[in-house]
Design goal:
Radius of gyration: 29 Å
Largest sheet: none
Number of strands: 0
Helix content: over 70%
Structural class: mainly alpha
Mean pLDDT: 88
Strand content: under 5%
Number of helices: 3
Shape: rod-shaped
Number of domains: 1
């Protein structure tokens, strides 16, 4: 083996050891990945619930104004909006649960 081949082999070995050390010290990601994922999902669920109720209230108020009725439609559509919001929140929670299960299965 020549001097240049020996030097090349030593550099390759050093490169391999540096990569191994960097991988060993790399920060580990949590199960949820990004630390803001839970907060983002909480805000998303809250907004879905509130917006659905507001849309229902606006529709009910508009129908009451259109037909000149007592706030019958307002009450009915607020309840329907709330039910739709709960349904969307449940769907978002199911989506989050499936995502976490997939990440857990990927780690194993």
């Amino acid at each position: 083996m020549g001097a240049s081949e020996e030097r090349s082999a030593k550099l390759d070995e050093l490169d391999r050891r540096i990569r191994a050390a960097r991988e060993a010290q790399a920060p580990k990601r949590g199960k949820t990945g990004d630390k803001f994922t839970a907060a983002n999902m909480a805000w998303r669920m809250t907004l879905e619930l509130v917006v659905a109720g507001l849309v229902g209230a606006a529709m009910g108020w508009g129908l009451d104004a259109l037909f000149g009725t007592l706030p019958v439609f307002l009450v009915v559509f607020i309840l329907l909006g709330f039910a739709a919001g709960v349904r969307m929140v449940m769907r978002s929670a199911e989506e989050l649960q499936k995502k976490q299960a997939a990440e857990a299965a990927e780690e194993d």
